[in-house]
Amino acid sequence: MSKTNGFLSVYAGLLTVLLLGGLAYGAGKHAVTADEITVQRINIVEPDGTPRLIISNHAKLPGVLVHGKEKPLDRPQAGLIFLNDEGSEIGGLIFGGRKDKDGKVRDSGGSLSFDRYEANQVVQLLGVDDSDDRFAGLAISDSPSGNDVRRRIWLGRGDDGEASLALLDGAGNKRIVMKVAENGESSISVLDATGKTVKELLP
């Protein structure tokens, strides 16, 4: 065998090894298995790069995403942001809690919400317990467009410990309210559009 042919044979062999190695690496890098990872943010995207889910700490949590473009918004929590097929936000799970320099509890609690297409929250499960507010419940709302939100149903507990179910009209006015206080007192009230009680059922 000539030196030239020998060199070509070795060269071809090396190319084959490198090619096979590259293919093996390329296949393997898409199927990484790990028992534990530590990151600040994870972006889940479609094959075309459209964002679908963001898992993030507070520092890396984005503002509102609309068609993949971010509108700045300061959110004092960490959490998950849900995005639709077009890369627009449709809800999320956020949570947080801290003490400020005066020792007051701020932004403590969590919220799981789902939004209407290109509008605001229509379903929200939330709990807040800090120096300013203390309540928990389920809110069902209308969101005709943009940031317009009109609550229609509230089921939960308020600052005063009162458990209540409120049904509201399309303008956001309470029309039927069922409530039970911490001491056991209960009532069912029917209200007009101005908030005046027109009928009330007591034990």
Please name the defining characteristics of this protein.
203 residues, mainly beta, two-stranded antiparallel sheet, globular
Question: What can you see in these coordinates?
Answer:
The protein is mainly beta and 203 residues long. The protein has a domain at 1-33. Helix content is 13%, strand content 47%. It contains one helix and 14 strands, in the order αββββββββββββββ. It has one helix spanning 3-28; strands at residues 41-45, 51-56, 64-66, 69-71, 78-83, 89-99, 105-115, 121-129, 134-142, 150-157, 163-168, 174-180, 186-191, 197-201. The strands form two sheets. It has a twelve-stranded antiparallel sheet, with no helix packed on it. β7 and β8 form a beta hairpin. The longest helix is centred in the first third of the chain and has 26 residues, at 3-28. It is globular, with a radius of gyration of 28 Å. The protein starts with a helix and ends with a strand.
